[in-house]
Amino acid sequence: MFLGSDIGIDLGTASVLVYVKGQGIVLQEPSVVAIEKNTNTILAVGEDARRMLGRTPGNIVAIRPLREGVISDFDVTERMIRYFIEKVVGKHTFRRPRIAVCIPSKVTEVERRAIEDATRSAGARQVYLIEEPIAAAIGAGIDISRACGSMVVDIGGGTTDVAVISLGGNVVSTSLKVAGDNFDDAIVRYMRKKHNVLIGERTAEALKINIGTAYKGTSEVTMDVRGRNLVSGLPMNITVSSVEMYEALHESVDAIVEAVHSVLEQTPPELAADISDRGIVMTGGGSLLYGLDKVIKEKTGINAVLADDAVSCVAIGTGRYIEYETADSSEKGPWFFKWGRNSWSASRRKTDRNSNKKTTSSKERKN
Ligand SMILES: Nc1ncnc2c1ncn2[C@@H]1O[C@H](COP(=O)(O)OP(=O)(O)O)[C@@H](O)[C@H]1O
Ligand SMILES: [Mg+2]
Question: Number of folded domains in the chain?
Fold first, then answer.
C-alpha cells in the first residue's frame, strides 16, 4: 500500500510527466486517450492510446484532450489524470496525494479552475497550481528568486510560452499556439502542396525529428517516407530533404521568433540587460528542432541555449515546487530554500480552497 505521497504533474499538450517526491520522474506518457464512442468507455490511455492515433475504426476515437494547451474535454482530462495518478500511486492509497500541476501562463480563470477541479476529482487531497514558465525555469536550474531577469522559451506540442521571470514571478509573458504540432501540420501541408502526397501526423513528426531544421544553412540530409499519392490514390515512397523541411517550417519558426522579440520589446530595460548577459533558456520538446536556438540567437542577438534535459524541465520544476510546498517548516527557510543547485523564493500561488493563505504576486513587488 502506498502511504500517500506528493506528486508534481506536467500536464503537457503532447505528454504527461509525473514526478514523485523523493523519487524523481516516474512516468512519461503521451497525453492521449482512446475512447469507445458508443459506450463512452476508455479503452486505453497514454502510449497504448497513442499507437491508435489515426488508426482507429469508426466507433473508437483517440483524442488529445489538452491539444491546444487548454482543457478541451473536461471529462476525458479528468479520467486521464486519474489513470496516471492510479498508475503511480496505486488504486488503494492510504492517503490521497497532494498534487502540484503546472498550467500554461495564459490560461483563463475558468480553465485554471477546470484543471484544479479535474485534479481534485481525480484523487488529489490538495491541489497546487504553478505557472509553466516558472516550473520550466526551476527545472532548468535558474535561480528565480533573484532580482535578475531570465527569459524562458518553452516550446511544447500545442503551445509556446515565452516569459521573463524575476523575483519568482512572471514579469512579461506571452503564449502562442504555434509549437511542435504546428510544425507537423506545416509539414503535412507542404507535402500535399509540393508533392501531391498525403502523409500522416506521425510520419510528419518523424520527418521533423529526423531531418527537420529551422536554420537555412544546414547541410542537406534526406529521409524516405511513405504516403498516399493524391492523384493515383495509391501508397508511394518519397525521399524528402532537409532543405524542403526548412521551407515547410520557416513560417512557424518565424512566429516563435516574433513572439520572443515582442516579449523582449516589452521587457523593462534593466531586466532586458540581464537577459542579454545571461542568455535565453529554451525548454520543451519543440525546442529540440534542429537549428532553432541558432535562429533565435541570430534574430535577437542574444545567446539562446537549450536546457539540459529540455523535455523534463517542467516536470522537474513542478516536482521541486511540491517538494518545497510540502516540506516541514523546519526544512525550509522563511524566504528561500536551497535544493541542489537552485535556490528560489517563496513566491507562489496556492489554490487550495481549504486555505486562504495569500501569496505574493510578482506585480506587487518592486524591482
Ligand atoms: N528531437 C526533436 N526535434 C523536434 N521536435 C521534437 C523532438 N522531440 C520531441 N519533439 C516535439 O516536441 C513536442 C512535445 O514537446 P513536449 O515538451 O513534450 O510538449 P508538451 O509539454 O506540450 O506536452 C512534440 O511536438 C514533439 O514532436
Ligand atoms: Mg510542456
Answer: 3
| Residue nearest to ligand 1 atom 12, measured at CA | 285
- Whether the predicted pLDDT of 337 surpasses 60: no
Asked if residue 80 belongs to a domain, the reply is yes
Q: What is the DSSP letter of 26?
A: E
- Residue in 311, 314, 318 to alter for ligand 1 test, most ligand atoms within 8 A of Cβ: 311
> Quick check: is 236 in a domain?
yes
44 domain residue, yes or no:
no
Atom of ligand 1 nearest to the CA of 179: 25
How many A from CA of 160 to the centre of ligand 2? 9
For residue 290, the model assigns a pLDDT of 97
169 in the same domain as 20 = no
Ligand nearest 208 Cα, by number? 1
Tell me whether residue 59 is exposed, middle or buried, using C-beta atoms within 10 angstroms of its C-beta: 0 to 12, 13 to 18, 19 or more: exposed
Q: How far apart are CA 210 and CA 247, in angstroms?
A: 15
Amino acid at 100: A
| Entry pTM | 0.86
Residue in 158, 227, 237 with CA at minimum distance from that of residue 193? 227
Supply the Cα-derived Rg of the chain in whole angstroms: 21
pLDDT of residue 90: 77
Q: How far apart are CA 146 and CA 148, in angstroms?
A: 5
Q: How many Å apart are CA 275 and CA 148, to the nearest integer?
A: 8
